[in-house]
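Quick start: read one record
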Amino acid sequence: MQYNISEFNELLKNRRSVGTAQYTGEKIDDSIVRQILENANLAPTHRLTEPWRFKVFVGKGLEKLFAKMAEIYQVHTAPEKFSQEKYDKFFEQHHKVSHVIAICMHRDTQNRVPEIEEICAVACAVQNIYLSVTAYDLAGYWSTGGGTFTQEMKSFLGLAAQDQCLGFFYLGCKAKDYPSTRRSSIEDKTEWIHE
């Protein structure tokens, strides 16, 4: 099968992390989100452990998620560092986003591969989400805020002891187009070894 490599290169160049302040509040059809997750499911995975697990929050589920994030923020923030504005923002976000996908790593129960490989596989699945979101001309970003790594969030998501929450992918409709991403030259990060 022949693919259009120019279009693929452009897709990669146009992948962006777009925060919720730039979302219109318009809702994305669940069928599109399902297809995005189908694409995530095609990520590489050693020994086919398929460690990614997704919990999709939408509608009233968003309110429940953001309320939990606000609660965790309040509990884990020292009084002198607490920001009422940041706390209130948790309750305002559900009006802007369409869906939030909790990104979870389900550890292979037989421990056939090192944990880091499971985490890397989940990260590959998230890259598939990013590329799909770009192809659909939507907005999204992977956040590790909102109490991601706390035991409270792990319990809230119903994860087993050996599993992990690796963040949340926010999805929405973007208010405007963004220039392609900027990167320094790959030559600065590559060493060619011929012998």
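The domain at 20-173 is CATH 3.40.109.10 (NADH Oxidase).
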